[in-house]
Design brief:
The chain is α+β, with helices and mostly antiparallel strands. Helices cover 52% and strands 8% of the residues.
């Protein structure tokens, strides 16, 4: 497996998840050297307070666990049960302080890249149902089952910490093949999943979204969200050629140049530019996406521009394309994001 992430999540993340996974491997009887083989990580690095690692290093660690423990159905659920709201730092505090389950879910999805999830997530409302959809973001095939189980168990742990009770799911659809023994899934989800489905969906009653949270404090939630925004921006900062290109794109908010134009500005061919970015674990498309998201958040926060004007500044031919992209980034449409940034929870 390549040690580079497929460029669908931030390259940097907190090392706490790697700590939990390493301890999980040790508890399964694996030697430390086997858990950390090829990651470039040491026990001292994992124990460093506030330490960050590359997402690629966590993927290698997960690969080591899967290779050593085998493709046991439910093994990722066991690992995911170690994740609690307190594991997620300021992101967890922001959710805990939200007024309702709906606002917590919306905030959590907006800053999903501050978590340890590799799967993307989005909320869909269908009548009296709410569907939380888990989307494969280019995860290596051999790791998808473990990571889906880990990410979904972590999600359920967060909901349990928020509500003080197990989340009552009414249906669970998984892309995974049906195992001979479903007991681990039934025990974890509270319901037997439907396997071999087209999408990973976790379905609950719509009324639960407006349930108030016991730790609600809108002022604290807003302050925590500001910190989440600053932390995510910091993690997205890049060095090397990727950093220079990102800075160049951010400096042209009115007309974002294409890859060929940028390559010429750096006296490179498009092919060389693409190869060098790949060597840094990045791509022009990813950088453009990051810059569009950053600029969109800033333009929506300051106000004064219509969605059509923002879409044009970001290089979208149609405002509908911008709205679709923004919902993919943040889990909600841009007009709702603008309202929340103005303190409307």
């Amino acid at each position: 497996m390549s040690n580079k992430p497929p460029n669908h999540w931030p390259l940097r993340r907190s090392g706490i998840s790697a700590q939990l996974l390493t301890q999980f491997g040790l508890d399964q009887g694996l030697p430390l050297e086997r858990c950390l083989a090829g990651t470039g990580l040491s026990l001292q690095q994992l124990a460093e307070p506030g330490g960050e690692i590359d997402a690629a290093q966590e993927l290698v660690l997960i690969g080591n666990l899967v290779a050593a423990l085998g493709a046991q159905p439910g093994i990722g659920l066991k690992a995911g049960q170690r994740y609690h709201l307190s594991t997620y730092g300021i992101w967890g505090f922001a959710m805990l302080s939200s007024p309702t389950f709906r606002s917590a879910a919306s905030l959590g999805l907006r800053y999903l890249d501050l978590t340890y999830a590799f799967y993307g997530m989005r909320l869909e409302e269908h009548g009296d149902e709410v569907h939380l959809v888990f989307e494969d973001r280019g995860i290596p095939a051999e790791l998808r089952a473990f990571i889906l189980e880990r990410d979904s168990a972590g999600m359920l742990g967060i909901q349990r910490d928020l509500l003080g009770q197990h989340l009552p799911l009414t249906r669970v659809d998984l892309c995974l093949p049906r195992p001979a023994d479903c007991s681990w899934y039934t025990d974890s989800y509270g319901i037997e999943p439907r396997f071999a489905q087209a999408e990973n969906r976790f379905v609950l009653r719509q009324e639960l979204l407006d349930q108030p949270l016991p730790g609600a404090n809108p002022q604290v939630a807003q302050h925590c969200e500001e910190q989440c925004h600053a932390l995510l921006t910091k993690r997205r900062e890049r060095s090397g050629l990727a950093g220079q290109i990102r800075a160049r794109l951010l400096g042209s908010p009115g007309r974002l140049p294409g890859m060929q134009e940028v390559a010429q500005q750096f006296n490179l061919s498009s092919r060389t530019l693409r190869r060098r970015l790949l060597d840094e674990g990045s791509s022009f498309r990813q950088l453009l996406e990051e810059v569009r998201q950053t600029l969109a958040e800033e333009l929506l926060a300051i106000g004064g521009l219509t969605l059509e004007e923002i879409a044009e500044r970001l290089g979208y031919a149609e405002v509908s394309n911008f709205i679709h992209a923004f919902k993919r980034w943040k889990g909600l449409p841009p007009h709702q994001y603008r309202q929340r940034r103005r303190g409307a929870f």
